[in-house]
Amino acid sequence: MRTATARMLPMLATVLALAAARPASADEFPLKDGDVWVMAGDSITAQHLHTNYMEAFCYARYPKLTFRIRNSGVGGNKIPDLINRFDYDVAAWKPTIVSVELGMNDKGQFTTDQYIENMGKLTQKIQAVKARPVFFTASPMNDGSTMDKLGGNARLNEYAIALKKFAAEQKAPFADQFHALIDVWGKNKARETTANEIAAVKALAQDDKLPGVEHLKAFLAEQTKDPNPPVSMKGDAVHPGEPGQLMMAAALLSDLGADGFVSSACVECNQGAKPVCDARGCTLDGVRVEGGGVAFDRLDDSIPFPIPDEARSVLPLAPTVLQLSDCSLAVGGLKGDRFTVSIDGKVVAMLAAGELKKGVNLTAYGTGPYADQGKEVLAAVKAKEDLVGQWRNLSKAASAENAPAKAKEGLENQTKKVEEADAKIREAAKPRKHHFEIAPAK
Prior knowledge:
Blueprint: H1 4-20, E1 36-41, H2 43-46, H3 50-61, E2 68-73, H4 79-89, E3 97-101, H5 112-128, E4 132-136, H6 154-170, E5 174-175, H7 177-205, H8 213-223, H9 242-255, E6 261-268, E7 276-280, E8 282-290, E9 293-300, H10 319-323, E10 326-332, E11 338-343, E12 346-352, H11 353-358, E13 360-361, H12 369-398, H13 405-428, E14 434-440
Parallel strand pairs: 1-2, 1-3, 3-4, 4-5, 6-10
Antiparallel strand pairs: 6-7, 8-9, 9-14, 10-13, 11-12, 11-14
Helix pairs in contact: 3-9, 3-12, 4-5, 5-6, 7-8, 7-9, 12-13
């Protein structure tokens, strides 16, 4: 008869194999303790979507680091425009990291050689303030183009290839979202119309008084059976909405070498005996087998990737997102077919015993305390960035020649408000102890 530990080994092997399969990067993630990271770019950066998601990820994954992230995006900007506003809109933050995400507007005016020449001038500005440059390619235009048929993305493709070489010469971190996304977006483009139509039907189906609404609901019920539902990036060809920008954030984070491991918890239930547990990146307390299920308290060292509700539709199309947030739970030895997984008294999922034994990623579920905390972090990041926007206006005024003392005083006061908002993000991202109950479904 095998021991409980021996019975648990296959389940642990599965979890470890999944962890080993996570994409590795030769580059170390650039964020360090004490860093001030200014994300400079154009209107895509100024949307405060993928940059906010990246910031939320950093707070979630690295809660022991103290850092600050600032958005410095301006619509229509090209590299020379950023150089012109650099002193009051980037250097004024006293950054230690400046990431550059430009090219969408440059492509209509500059050859690839000119683009790299301009990037060299900007790099000198960054290094002059003793900051470390980080280079991002522009995102692709979501117009149905692929690598086989680049169309309007041809110049951006050239920029991306040249920028990779330039970053290597500078020995600087580089992330290529362009090549990570162009084929995925291009092949999905034809299905976006269907996704948008389904979204329109969902909106209409909210009105129970609408004649024929039952037919709309029946149509939507059929759509839920599709294992590969159509996904819309939302927004427009240049400015994706939340789903597209979550993919952008994941592509950039992954290429920068961000750590995708959150935690893993494995519990082997031995009916009538002490359960066997293995916890990594978290602690389990009060584990008890009862009523055909198991209950315990779990405290993670960090929290999952915060994902906005508006972007969750893209998860089937974007495996990188969940690879960046491996927060696993595996439970073996259960007697029964289906089980509810409740966290802090809220049902998060209903799963088959085989699914639980294999292990699930808790980040995948859009309800429950983990998802709720992620939304808190995202809201705190947004609130801080609203204050950053006000700071940037004050900084421009305070940097003007013969600026009044009142302008500089206002900037100092606004700086304090922004730093107080940083503290609120850190507080929102602190790991919390949660009570888990896995019970037979009734």
